[in-house]
Specification:
single chain; 189 residues
């Protein structure tokens, strides 16, 4: 299978690329490290459209939503899979007021609209939204919660764990769509 992954050189994207590549899949990586900017959505879409699966991981404003919409519309009527990497932050957007949270809400709403505009019974493109909580990545170290806090490293999930969840979802039969999977660590005392 040919799998396109945005942000494939770090964090969740790299963990997904490593996992799927280790199973013999061809990876089409789209990251700044190899000259791709997801703000150039049409250029990125041209590389993604010939693939079988798209892991929409890289975040930069609403570019993630725009890229999803373009690819989904190109793939309409074909048996393909799109995995959007969202965030727990979408559930906290009213409280935090952050642009990141608003952009992740936008991605979810775009996925809901585009994925279902033809009706579920006519849909062939499978859309999976994975919404992790804190993941131990460079991005988590750059972005602090609204109160300037973040969990201790032992309370974060690994990027490899999220990649395993992506694989679990995509290993389901194509007629099974896990539209939303939200997961995060909770404290146990």
């Amino acid at each position: 299978m040919k799998i396109a992954i945005t942000g494939h050189s770090k964090g969740i994207g790299k963990a997904c690329a490593d996992l799927f590549e280790s199973e013999g899949h061809e990876i089409v990586g789209l990251s700044r490290s190899n000259g791709f900017d997801i703000q150039q959505v049409n250029m990125c879409a041209m590389k993604i459209v010939p693939c079988d699966m798209f892991i929409n991981n890289a975040y930069l404003g609403t570019s993630q939503s725009q890229l999803f919409e373009i690819v989904c519309n190109h793939w309409r009527g074909q048996y393909k899979t799109i995995v959007n990497i969202g965030s727990r932050a979408q559930y906290e957007h009213n409280r935090s007021g952050s642009i990141y949270s608003a952009d992740k809400v936008h991605l979810k709403r775009t996925a809901e609209y585009v994925a279902f505009k033809e009706g579920i019974e006519n849909k062939k493109v499978r859309v999976i939204n994975i919404n992790p909580g804190w993941v131990d990545t460079d991005m988590a170290n750059l972005n602090l919660a609204p109160d300037n806090s973040k969990p201790a490293q032992e309370n974060m999930m690994s990027a490899e764990y999220i990649a395993d969840m992506v694989k679990w979802c995509t290993d389901m039969p194509h007629d099974t769509e896990i539209f939303d999977l939200s997961l995060w660590k909770t404290t146990t005392d």
